[in-house]
């Protein structure tokens, strides 16, 4: 039999009616992690690491550079000597008791809201890069255009459930940059936005823009996070001024801090996975405690980003087995605390090549099997974060989409096993192209790739022998050309732009450090 | 502190003695799978699939093209109508009872022996390709030179624990080809070799060459597998002449058959994962039963290689979410039977690009989380098996090596957590390069990559801006230039060559079909 022999299909097509098989419908917006959590350490070892983290905070302490934060810790019961803050385990226990175990981030549309808790799964593209790169225009310092374009690309793919500070728009003056990045995230996407913690004035500007543009009251804004920031400690054991200020500002205003010590084993962290994660855990607990001292119940996410350096050169490496194991260990500690947690993939490669693909995917699997709630740098991140690649965001999305497909699972009922509709319908050495089961599902059963190409060598050669990167260039160019964006309320847009004009005239808000 | 301030290291170096930190020592030869098995279906669904496989064999039957095999099935209790063999569940149960659950493959050296059972983990490079390709010489029909070179590459990496029929040496006449491939595997490597099932005369030649070259008796050879073959059914439900003959010959002589229906969902198998794996399971059970009817206890490995086709073009796809889920389902059925099982990774890409890397790694993770014992096509496989790539074998080995590192696990004892030797030894915002813990481990803690490059963009550019493929070219060229091979007993080599000369003069042994 051939496809043409299938009368059912011919019949429906003859009348110009709908096709026999329904179109494919996927939902990549609300994912649950289906992968069994993997443990690298025993529960006793995890308990010993937690205990050592507590001892580290009690005996070695954190250096906190912001006097206001030191004062919050002191009032909360910490022993303070100059900038050194010694945090007791009772304070940590209290913070872990009040930190929410489940957080809903409010996006521009309700079906873009994100749930952050152990078991949920949220992807975010590569973030924080000073440079952008693509095959058409080369590698260059990040610009406003790059930030806007990257926002459009991130908006396009449902598998990115939150926005990231993708690329630094270096051509926008620093005292006005937060206006630009916030306006861009409000007008080109309706996903959960990111706000940098670069001092109180910028944070307050961003909160006001968000609140008014989203049309929520002060109370509504404070009641649920409408944005998030990333807080990196200065490992080892230092919390600098803008990061401490960010923890205070975001907690006080009910907005989400994702606390992430960025620790490279052998450099700013111990060379061992166990040691590095013990340090990272201690620093995360200190920062989480600060948020809960400011406002018990403030939304905060436990975070880890631990990989290793190459001990010959000191250069950072990503997607290594050590990175993978660090993600597993961090996941075990996150489950120990019960908090949602973020981890990270990423690549050290300088171009989007095989190394970049393998590193990023290896990093992803460490996060997935570590049970991460949020996986940052899940796509597009090159050079250990010094650039984001337009092609790599496309090729990595292919992997993320397939992981999202795995989240949906598969059925094995009578229809799927298909003794009557498939197995007994085809003779030995025959084919299943026209089996009833196939005809009912040929449009819907399989994921449709966005950049992978299954043509054979001859056809592929005739079509120009383009590798995945070259095909990815066309994919991102088409997305940018389509320029799909959410509808925006004209009045709110005017309010936003007036606010930015007023605050620009007032001198904006330089970043603090 | 800097590295130079470490007195311990200076002291040992001053005397010209060994370095303070030991060299890295890894063992990739005997791996256990550390990844928690993932289930895509419930145990009830798996039982229903097994039940439907039994029904398929009982009611729909297998078409068996070799009369001798039909007769074996008939004598074993099967109902036979012409070439159709209807196999009862009692026969399947009996076969699963006698098939060994643990198999040791005997290689050329005892430390190359492989253990095949649920829980052990063995990798094999891409196999069966008619073409070879590399950046230096382009894509060409496979040749004797390619087969030899690929054998040397496979021999070089411990993470390949068994040999594969990598590439077809098309310039060797088919009636002599088995002499060439066996001699090559005996002289260029001491790993567990592969023998094609292309008729009894070839198999007997190969068994004799192996037995004599390994220096074992007839009884010793029959008592343990010294080689293996791959048996592909002709899905759906057909067992052709050379494959049926191979099952009989290998079982009768105590050699290992790896039974693998190669089923593409939507083409030669049902479009659903559940249907395709039910068919694959039925065919594997039929072939396994044949081996046990020939010789109860004969070594046989359960196998699956199920991916999907692109329903728009009919082209095979690999490393997809459907492929991943099929591996999980097959793993569940393998555990249901208790047999060691093989799965497969692979790529549909036409070049070793980002697609090729992502597909292969995605396929690998499906196998790993499916608990596969043997993962075939784990490296180097392009175009859905129509070519093997010299560069891809190198870039994939990087991933396999890191997976082998994950098999080794990590410790989290007092030394690794390192409160005294690391955490308390570094001031806030300091670095750990010279911490006592680092100094004791800097040579040994991290995997050293073979092709991944961690240089920053500037350094990488100065060095020629080579991507991973270009660097991989140098890696394989260096391995071939070094030409490391196991020592070979001169007398046995002479015996081998005399045998080949005699059998060649007698006309060799044409393949049967």
TrEMBL record, chains A, B:
Methyltransferase keyword on record: yes
Keyword Methyltransferase among UniProt keywords: yes
Region (Disordered): 1-31
Key words of the record: Methyltransferase, Transferase
Source domain of life: Bacteria
GO biological process: methanogenesis; methylation
GO MF annotation: an example: methyltransferase activity
Gene3D superfamilies, alphabetized: Trimethylamine methyltransferase-like (3.20.20.480)
The protein's Enzyme Commission number: 2.1.1.-
A Pfam family reported for this protein in Swiss-Prot or TrEMBL: MTTB
UniProt family annotation: Belongs to the trimethylamine methyltransferase family.
Descriptive protein name: Methyltransferase
Source organism per UniProt: Roseobacter litoralis (strain ATCC 49566 / DSM 6996 / JCM 21268 / NBRC 15278 / OCh 149)
């Amino acid at each position: 039999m051939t496809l043409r022999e299938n009368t059912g299909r011919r019949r429906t097509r003859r009348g110009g009616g709908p096709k026999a098989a329904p179109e494919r419908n996927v939902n990549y917006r609300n994912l649950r992690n289906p992968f069994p959590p993997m443990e690298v350490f025993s529960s006793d070892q995890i308990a010993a690491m937690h205990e050592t983290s507590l001892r580290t905070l009690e005996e070695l302490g954190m250096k906190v550079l912001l006097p206001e934060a030191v004062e919050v810790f002191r009032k909360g019961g910490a022993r303070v000597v100059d900038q050194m803050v010694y945090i007791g385990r009772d304070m940590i226990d209290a913070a872990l008791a009040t930190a929410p175990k489940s957080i809903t981030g409010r996006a521009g549309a309700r079906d873009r809201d994100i749930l952050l808790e152990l078991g949920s799964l949220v992807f975010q593209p590569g973030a924080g890069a000073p440079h952008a790169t693509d095959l058409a225009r080369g590698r260059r310092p990040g610009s406003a255009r790059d930030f806007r374009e990257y926002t459009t690309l991130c908006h396009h793919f449902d598998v990115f459930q939150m926005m990231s500070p993708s690329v630094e728009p270096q051509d926008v003056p620093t005292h006005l940059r937060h206006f630009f990045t916030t306006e861009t995230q409000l007008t080109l996407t309706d996903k959960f936005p990111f706000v940098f913690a670069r001092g109180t004035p910028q944070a307050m500007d961003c909160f006001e823009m968000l609140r008014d543009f989203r049309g929520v009251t002060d109370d509504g804004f404070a009641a649920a996070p409408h944005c998030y920031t990333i807080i990196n400690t200065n490992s080892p054991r230092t919390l600098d001024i803008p990061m401490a200020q960010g923890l205070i500002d975001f907690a006080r205003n009910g907005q989400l801090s994702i606390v992430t010590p960025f620790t490279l084993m052998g450099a700013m962290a111990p060379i061992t996975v166990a040691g590095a994660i013990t340090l990272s855990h201690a620093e995360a607990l200190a920062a989480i405690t600060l948020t809960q001292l400011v406002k018990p119940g403030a939304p905060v996410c436990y975070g880890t980003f631990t990989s290793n350096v190459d001990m010959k050169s000191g250069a950072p490496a990503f997607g290594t087995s050590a990175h993978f194991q660090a993600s597993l260990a961090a996941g075990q500690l996150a489950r120990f605390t019960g908090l949602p947690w973020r981890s990270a993939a990423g690549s050290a490669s300088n171009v989007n090549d095989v190394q970049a693909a393998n590193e990023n995917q290896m990093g992803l699997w460490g996060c997935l099997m570590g049970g991460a709630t949020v996986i940052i740098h899940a796509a597009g991140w090159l050079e250990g974060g010094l650039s984001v690649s337009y092609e790599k965001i496309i090729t990595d999305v292919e992997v993320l989409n397939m992981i999202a497909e795995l989240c949906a699972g598969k059925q094995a009922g009578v229809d799927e096993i298909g003794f009557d509709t498939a197995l007994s319908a085809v003779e030995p050495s025959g084919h299943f192209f026209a089996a009833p089961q196939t005809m009912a599902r040929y449009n819907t059963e399989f994921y449709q790739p966005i950049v992978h190409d299954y043509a054979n060598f001859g056809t592929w050669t005739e079509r120009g022998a383009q590798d995945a990167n070259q095909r990815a260039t066309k994919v991102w160019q088409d997305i940018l050309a389509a320029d799909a964006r959410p509808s925006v309320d004209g009045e709110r847009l005017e309010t936003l732009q007036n606010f930015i004009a007023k605050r620009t005239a007032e001198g904006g808000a330089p970043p603090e450090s």
